[in-house]
Amino acid sequence: MVLMDCAAEYGYYSADITRTVPANGKFSTEQKEIYQIVLDAQSAAIKMVKPGIMKSELDKAINDISEKVW
Prior knowledge:
Strand order of the largest sheet: 1-2
Structural class: alpha+beta
Largest sheet: 2 strands, antiparallel
Number of strands: 2
Low-confidence stretches: none
Strand content: 25-35%
Number of helices: 2
Mean pLDDT: 91
Distance between the termini: 18 Å
Helix content: 40-55%
Order of helices and strands: EEHH
């Protein structure tokens, strides 16, 4: 697995992007399962984001999904 975590800042703007890709071009079965769980957790949190939501609520949603693995 190759993890790329890139960020840039210019003036008052900033950007950050993280990508994970298989080093040999193809996920193993285990890598694919873990990748999907992380993606599901991220998607659930993104759907919940709105003004006034507490970070702890997002953390709980992520943990509820990701505890299937860890």
